[in-house]
Amino acid sequence: MEFEAFAKRVDGIEAEAGDIETIQEVAALFGAADAELPVVVRFVQGRVFPAWSSTTLDIGPSLCYTAIARAAGPNVSADDVEARLADQGEIGAVAEGYEFGDQQGLAAFGSGAAEGLTVDEVDSELRALADADGSGSQDRKVDLLFGLFRQCSPLEARYLARLVLGEMRIGVGEGTVRDAICEAFDQPTETVSRALQVTNDYGEVAAVAREEGAAGLDSLELEVGRPVQSMLAQAGTAAEALDSWGEAAAEIKFDGARVQIHVQEGEESGLGEISIYSRNMDDVTAALPDVVEFVRQSVTDSCILDGEVVAVDDAGDPLAFQHVLRRFRRKHDIERMVEEVTLRLHAFDCLRAGSEGLLTKPLVDRHDRLETVFKNGEADEAVAELLLSDDPDELAAFEADALEAGHEGIMLKNPQSAYSPGDRGQNWLKRKPDVETVDLVVTGAEWGEGRRASFLGTFLLSVRDPETASYRTIGKVATGITDEQLAELTELLEPHITAESGQTVEIQPSVVFEVGYEEIQPSPTYASGYALRFPRFVAVREDKSPADAETVGRIERLAESQ
Ligand code: ATP
Asked: ipTM of the assembly?
């Protein structure tokens, strides 16, 4: 498929306001694709790589502006691109406004269309861009991107710019893509949803739906080495749990960082490669050599485990969540950090053991299997204790003990429930006595004044609208932040600034803040329709990406349940 043809269809999709029509147009786009179908499906979502992959383009907005400026000719500078961006508010519109090198040449010769870019060519160039690393890699990335932009028509440039920055803004969320796959290849929603859950790859699922139908989709399974989304919890109480299920499986809610551990099968029945993923499915293996070693020593079979790693003090007692984060994304001085912060693994679920996928098995069976994956004796240390009980007093005592021992609270799980990746449903309930917090995406900020003029001071926060894959504002936070934190936050956010006007900056969604609040109120001021009363900064959730931030729907539910 020509990239121009892709861009034209996407332009039509962007202009479409109706949900059903949007699904039909996306389905028609998928139907028109040939071997490049998986790429088309990813591009529509603003992705080059499937969700399970940790690979990123690793190119910030300013390098993208430089590439656009170069392609636009000698009279255009990156500053000019930024000035237009401040004016027009969106990089796609800015890119579309230039005439790029080859187009200018063609116009001069008065010739017809050039040999157009194809979707596959764009994909392979962007993959080469992602591969560039080491010294000089940033220049190489700009060169590659410049090479693409100079071949682009204005419409192609609009979507290339947005694709590179990971935001298509065409009103197509994950649900729309799923429905379009169902529609294009005539498959039931449940079959496609299950396939998406286990593979985490919309492109692959679309291709299998087209080529092998329902039987092919049903045969897709979890694969060791491909992380899946974590199952999540809602707030709830023991009374609700017993009411719904009769009996509850209670576990400690460890205050650490979520890990999904993938252990490959090795040669001669030994273990192969071990990889650890964060709850965003980022590969954090390199930062956690001690956890890898522990797993290598204590696990007997290939498997996929779900659990939490917690920082502990010399006596083995849990330390606050912030300590784990010091270890998590570490790229340098890893050995020193291993010495400084001791981690302990608490595995609480098993998604696959040996060649057997366990997602649809009941929780209690998965827990039994989890224990057998560890060597004799090791399970006691590594596997989270599970208390099965139908007695409210026993559950209350379990919770009191957990809090007494310094844990965050308890989890209550439906003993008969399947593992449902990415689901924040009714089968896992979390119970913790602390204040309410929400996880929000930083989408803007304001420079401070006086002593704080060189720091970003007030942060604009947004929630996610999954259906349109966009962000909607919900408030600002300026309280709860020390001067030292302001400096750190400025350093963290500055590279993501996309536009600036006076004191105010726009920020590409990339950083998630945990924010405490007293109440959620309806409000006409913000695009979400809600505002936080007394918002207070709690922490940067480095373990979360914008995709994990609260959605508009969840804010609505929280507001209702107050
Ligand atoms: P929170 O901010 O409360 O940790 P969250 O948004 O990170 O919530 P939730 O799904 O709301 O995630 O809460 C579940 C989280 O609690 C899991 O993601 C996991 O990291 C952690 N956790 C700790 N102990 C357990 C356990 N025994 N079972 C499941 N999750 C656990």
From this structure: 0.95
